[in-house]
Amino acid sequence: MGSLNLPTEQWAQVVEKVGGPATYKRIPVQQPGPDEVLVNVKYSGVCHTDLHAMMGDWPLDTKPLPLVGGHEGAGVVVARGSLVTDIELGDLAGIKWLNGSCLSCSYCQNSDESLCKKALLSGYTVDGTFQEYAIAKAAHVARIPKGTNLEAVAPILCAGITVYKGIKESLVRPGQTIAIVGAGGGLGSIAIQYAKAMGIHAIAIDAGDEKRDLCLKLGATTFIDFTKSKDIVADVKAATPDGEGPYGALLVAVQEKPFQQATQYLRSKGVLVCIGLPANANLSAPVFDTVVRMINIKGSYVGNRADTTEALDFFARGLINVPYKSIGLSQLQNVYDLMHEAKIAGRYVVDTSK
Ligand SMILES: NC(=O)c1ccc[n+]([C@@H]2O[C@H](COP(=O)([O-])OP(=O)(O)OC[C@H]3O[C@@H](n4cnc5c(N)ncnc54)[C@H](O)[C@@H]3O)[C@@H](O)[C@H]2O)c1
Ligand SMILES: [Zn+2]
Ligand SMILES: [Zn+2]
């Protein structure tokens, strides 16, 4: 194994029981296995998924507690296993939700790596990036170009990849309109900019003046406040040129209701892309309408390695300005509290040095 000088202990945020809170404490620095790298995480974005993981919201077990969350980690490679030859010590790298996958099952062969049954999930089935030193499979770490601002790029590693892939899955084309539901949050605010960069009009749906101002500043064509609108379906349709509704809807909200509404305002042949993962939520739609209006309903789950490279390339070209606020890793629980109340416009990024 090759490595730079490493400490034996580090600061981390550790979840010790379901429901939290996360505890800021010293833990040992781990060594990477033969096909892994150790990344000195400088900054990590805080995704709503981290909060779902701590709260035990999903029908999918985490690794046995204690768990270190986090999966938008941007940093520097400081150690690599003996089999790793294509990333150097000192290179910039990103740890994403998909920490590793088997690379040989039929899903991996088809580049649907997120569907791999042996996938390792950062901050969920393996310890993640809310620590100073985190491990990932070398094949899966994102290659980040030299000179990149690690604080600004961190949210691309989950939010960016996920919404970029989701917009592609929506099949919405340049010149057409997409509805982004949950547009003022982390995924949503970044989705507005990918849509804009791809030449797609975005109808942003969320709540409150701060999120409205942010969405419009980031390039949304229209903002609809779901707490004020008397008829969301009518308002969304009215925001499209022919009144028929958008070609696609990207659901990044953390409540069930908007998933049900979306099939009603999509234009015929429209595509509903489900990305948000509210706890215990179900999705139903009238069969008759779905058939005769040819509505498509699909899920989209992060992205593969090519999506990662492409999403980072949009960032590198200056097309995506992640709206983030920075805070010390020690303050993570405060971010979770704000997130739980839907009070975060954009993304929080934690700095692992404080
Ligand atoms: N599918 C995937 O691969 C994937 C990847 C990352 C995150 N996620 C999930 O996406 C969701 C969003 O994550 P985030 O980090 O952006 O969360 P966030 O808390 O930053 O944003 C969620 C937003 O949804 C808004 N919202 C709530 N109810 C709404 C409603 N009825 N209509 C419109 N907006 C509403 C909130 O006001 C908030 O702004 C989470 O459930 C997360 O787990 C999925
Ligand atoms: Zn995430
Ligand atoms: Zn696989």
From TrEMBL:
Family stated for the protein in its record: Belongs to the zinc-containing alcohol dehydrogenase family.
EC number(s) given by UniProt: 1.1.1.1
Transmembrane portions of the chain: none
GO cellular component: cytoplasm
Domain Enoyl reductase (ER) as annotated: residue spans: 19-350
The protein's enzyme class: oxidoreductase
Any Pfam family the entry gives: ADH_N
Organism superkingdom: Eukaryota
Cofactor: Zn(2+)
Record-linked InterPro entries: ADH-like_C, ADH-like_N, ADH_Zn_CS, ER, GroES-like_sf, NAD(P)-bd_dom_sf
Annotated keywords: Metal-binding, NAD, Oxidoreductase, Zinc
Signal peptide: none
SUPFAM superfamilies (UniProt xref): GroES-like, NAD(P)-binding Rossmann-fold domains
A single MF term (Gene Ontology): zinc ion binding
Protein name: alcohol dehydrogenase
